[in-house]
Amino acid sequence: MQSTSIHELAIGEITRLSGRGVQRLTLAEPLESSFERSTAAQRSSRLWIEGLVAIGLFNIYVIVEYFIRGGDSWLALQIRLCIITPLALLINASMRWNPNKVYRETSIALVSCLIGLTHLYLESNKSSASSAYAQVGLIVTVIFVNVVMRIYFTYAFIASSVLLLGEILFIQHDHFLNPSEKLLGITLAICAIAMTLIANHSIGREERMGYLMRLRSEIQSSELSTLNIELQRISSIDSLTGIANRHAYELQFAKLWHEAEEARTCISAIVIDIDHFKAVNDTSGHLYGDRVLVRVASLLLQSLRCKDDFAARFGGEEFIVLLPGTMQEGAMIVAERIRKLVEVAGSPAMQAEGSHPRLSTVSCGVATCWPGSANCQNDLVGAADRALYQAKAGGRNRVCWGEPSSVARKRPIGERRSGWLVTKGDASSLAKAE
Question: What's the confidence (pLDDT) of residue 433?
């Protein structure tokens, strides 16, 4: 199964990321693509919100710096407000449209590098205080890109490397710092970059671990649900005949009865019994008897009219068919169809050459009622069962109809009937059996 292979792959990646040392963050396909699809929208939304806050704070800093320096930083104000800020806002606004991973991570890295390098350019080689101030600005930029925005580790590493190269380049040409101060500045930048990259890697690993744990849980829940459905299906199927068993019949009968009560429609039941089944077992063997049961069950399913009709093994050689929304005449036609099909095709061939199978036939009892407070489910099945015994007593291989006792009690004595009989081979005429 596809889900099982992904489950095993996810478990393998969880084990790998849980190992000691620095682990590769990129997941094996298709997990990495799935991780990106499931987190892209939320990540873009977070980058947009945090980026908007950062741009606002950046502009507040620019304006405060301008006034504190008494107008000496007019060029810095123009570059930051007229070039960097519009570009940052444009990149930040594009996060609203959930861009692809390469554009999203690269654009954040580029604008962060631009801010950091511009700060080095504007502050380096002016005074000792300004040069030291440039180092602080670089460290803030590194913290922003690696920890605050938390761009993916590969992009964070490249951006940090670019910023470090810029730091080395500008600090070498700074005439206000002595060699020891330059070395201290570069060491401080390297330490800041290393610590923030470690934090970035740890956060990235935790994000992927969280995704893999959720994925594993979802797959396990899905597989468990599938297994439960399969177990329910197996528990509701008769192992020999392949049709519904007694337990499934009871559940379906309750459901159909409730639906008939709400819709105020009738429901019919047909109880079917294989004639002389004990004699079939005694003369042809139990294995052949099992084949007869399987054949009759198959013919029952063929006799049903629509998906709402329901057939089940009632027990032993007995079966039952429920026909929701079916009046007496329709139920009698279905029962006669079952009887005729079994008579024609209900006897499997014998395996021994020259052997002739005993003719398999069925007797059927039919009953119909309108669910309500005046009668009950047992009354319907009881009426069909009594009609079945009437068919047996009448010679077998025939269909009889029985009236539920709750309905019969409502009729005048002169109008009460014991049942209707359909003799074999006559599906159209319903002869009254007094």
Answer: 33
pLDDT tens-digit readout, 98-138 = 999 999 999 999 999 999 999 998 888 888 888 888 888 89
Of 105, 167, 317, 343, the active-site residue reads 317
Question: Residue 50: is it exposed, middle or buried by C-beta count within 10 angstroms (0-12/13-18/19+)?
Answer: middle
Nearest to 79 by CA among 119, 107, 108, 52: 119
Contact 342, 296 (CB under 8 A): yes
412's CB contacts (< 8 A; 6+ apart) are none
Domains and CATH numbers, the chain: 2-221 (no CATH), 246-349+357-432 (3.30.70.270)
Closest listed residue to residue 358, CA positions, set 273, 274, 279, 272? 279
Which two structure tokens, joined as six digits, stand for 18? 């849980």
**pLDDT class for 375, splitting at 50, 70, 90?**
low
Residue 22, sorted as left (phi over 0), alpha (psi -120 to 50) or beta, turns out to be beta
- Residue 417 host element (H or E): none
Q: What is the pTM of this model?
A: 0.61
The Cα 57–Cα 410 span in angstroms is 88
pLDDT, tens digit, 9 for 90 and up, residues 262-291: 888 999 999 999 998 988 888 888 898 899
Catalytic residue at 343? no
